[in-house]
Fold:
Amino acid sequence: MALIRWEPFRDIERLQSFRDRERWEPFREIDTLQRQMNRLFDRLIPDDGGERTGLTFIPAAEIEETDDAIKLRLEVPGLESKDINIEATPESISITGERRTETRTEENGVTRSEFRYGKFHRVIPLPSQVKNDKVQAEYKNGVLHLTLPKAESEKRRAVKVNIS
Structure:
């Protein structure tokens, strides 16, 4: 995909220089801007014969940090645990998976689906270093629960400070 420099005010500047001959119409400029934005999004989301293959499925995540661990929940309904791959480093967690499409045919009408299918890959940077060899994972009711114990150097301990 070629990068095209976007100059949204180029037409306005040109019209202002021809102020004597033309009248500036802001609603026409807004329409032009909308068409340019639509073209930009059409380029970002490729289309393969009616099925979107680009940004199709990005699961939502929640992260909670406690004194001893980082707890991560990822919403991945419709998957089986064998369809999810988790890789942990001390600084981040990488989760990949695929929600496979169900093949359905309907003879007397049209089948419509608003579900999102396809592969996803999500890398989540962690707020502190973890013991990546001690990560625990549980998948229940479409939610992936990860418990990432913090590295000893990262555990926050209250230390009494003496005042001199």
